[in-house]
Design goal:
The protein has 117 residues and is α+β, with helices and mostly antiparallel strands. It has one domain: Winged helix-like DNA-binding domain superfamily/Winged helix DNA-binding domain (Arc Repressor Mutant, subunit A), CATH 1.10.10. Helices cover 66% and strands 15% of the residues. It has a three-stranded antiparallel beta sheet with strand order 1-3-2. The radius of gyration is 16 Å and the shape is globular.
Length: 117
């Protein structure tokens, strides 16, 4: 089994949370910056594609969780994303939910003797 395919499956299910959490921390980012930050923080273990990232950004915008601002940089427009108040609340909620889920998965994956100690 290809390990990249497996990790991509997990990333797909958590991409909204990843983006919301990054924007909550960084306040304002553009798409390429998000991909690079994820790559850097994970030591390259997670590499977001633009094909996966931009539909999520657009969906979050439609849901009112983020807003965009276009800024001209070196003669080109760069679209920055930042969270709305509901977006900040969603970032906290989704991050807490994901942390609880990861803790539960750790319990499931732990050897039975360790889980009962």
């Amino acid at each position: 089994m290809d390990t990249n395919t497996t990790s991509n499956e997990y990333v797909r299910g958590t991409l909204k949370t990843i983006v919301l959490n990054l924007l909550a921390e960084e306040k304002r980012m553009y798409g390429y910056e998000i991909t690079q930050e994820v790559k850097e923080r994970t030591g390259g273990a997670i590499a977001l594609t633009f094909g996966a990232l931009y539909p999520v950004l657009h969906k979050l915008e439609q849901e009112g969780l983020l807003v965009t601002e276009s800024v001209e940089v070196d003669g080109r427009l760069r679209k920055y994303y930042s969270l709305t108040t509901p977006g900040n609340e969603a970032a906290r909620t989704k991050t807490d939910d994901l942390e609880r889920f990861v803790d539960a998965i750790r319990l499931l994956l732990a050897p039975k003797s360790l889980a009962t100690e």
